Amino acid sequence: MGKSPAMPDAGGANSGYLVTEDGFTLLLDCGTGVFAELRTVCEPTAVDAILITHMHVDHFADLLPYAHALAYPYGKSAARPRLLLPPGGRELLAKIVELLGIGYPVVGAFEVEEYDPDAVHTAGPLTLRHQEVPHYVRTWACELSGSQGGRFTFGADCAPNDALVKFARDTDLLMLEATEEFAPFVADGDVRGHMTARDAGELARRAGAKRAALTHFSDLLDPQVVRSEGEAGFGAPVELVQAGLRFTV
User: Fold this and answer.
1) Spatial distance between the Cα atoms of 202 and 208, rounded to a whole number of angstroms
2) Model's pTM, two decimal places?
3) Where on the phi/psi map is residue 118: left (φ > 0), alpha (ψ -120 to 50), or beta?
4) What's the first-to-final CA gap in the chain, in angstroms?
5) Quick one: DSSP state of residue 53?
6) Pair (109, 127) in one structural domain
7) What whole-number distance in Å separates Cα of residue 208 and Cα of residue 79?
8) pLDDT digits over 190-231, tens only?
9) Cα separation of 2 and 38, whole Å?
10) CA dihedral (218, 130, 146, 123) positive or negative
């Protein structure tokens, strides 16, 4: 649905990825612009579950228009998707709703759960695992395994780290952010929170991923440079994520 970093691409959306398995639909992240993109491919009521990796606005902001749609245009008869939030996500979302003075039931529009990152969960036919990764707020990478054993691992937003290498070992598809251009960007008290394309490629190579895809990079960057840097790190071709791109795992 969208691959943009915090500043959305022109005509694009922030983080949002639709995963389907055996008629079950899960939306992974729901950043700015994702809900509009979602409506181009399916009814909002067709989504069975929404999984949020961390509580940065470019990964959850469109839960607000999503909730409005479920509360009003689709009415009380609409099925409520499961909303799987990271630890502390329910309280933060409730505070945001209160501060904005939103008059519709954002939390009540969904079946809200906070997932235990240390546990293995199921969502329909999908098996979910989580791994905390270094970012500016607490963030969890996730693995979605299908009924036939295919594994899709999403690194969320993170700096290079060994924990994700171990977590993603031999995955079928590893999708990693490539936010930084060519050199690390350090902020928030010397904490690094993102990767370059080369970092992402190297992490995918170390993990032994069968395929690697790069996401969360700006349209201000030259996509061919992003690709070449990622491939230099991975040692094999990489995919550049864009709206409408489909993978089979």
Assistant:
1) 10
2) 0.95
3) alpha
4) 18
5) S
6) no
7) 40
8) 678 999 999 999 999 999 999 999 999 999 999 999 999 999
9) 9
10) negative
88-117: burial string, b at 16+ Cβ within 10 Å, e else: ebeeebeebbeeeeeeeebeebbebeebeb
Q: Please say which residue of 115, 141, 169 terminates a domain.
A: 115
Q: Is residue 249 part of a domain?
A: no
Residue 123 three-state SS: strand
Cα dihedral across residues 80, 82, 85, 89: positive or negative: positive
82 forms beta bridges with: 49, 111
Q: Which residues of the chain are modeled with pLDDT < 50? A: none
Dist. CA 49–CA 25, nearest whole Å:
7
Q: Residue 122 gets which letter from DSSP?
A: E
DSSP annotation of 45: G
**Residue-level length of the chain:** 249
- Structural domain containing residue 20: 1-115
Do the beta carbons of residue 47 and residue 25 sit within 8 Å? yes
Q: How far is CA 175 from the centre of its chain?
A: 9
Q: Based on the domain organization, do 46 and 154 belong to the same domain? A: no
- Please say which residue of 84, 115, 146 terminates a domain: 115
Does any domain span residue 222? yes
**16/93 same-domain check:** yes
Q: What is the CATH number of the domain that holds 106?
A: 3.60.15.10
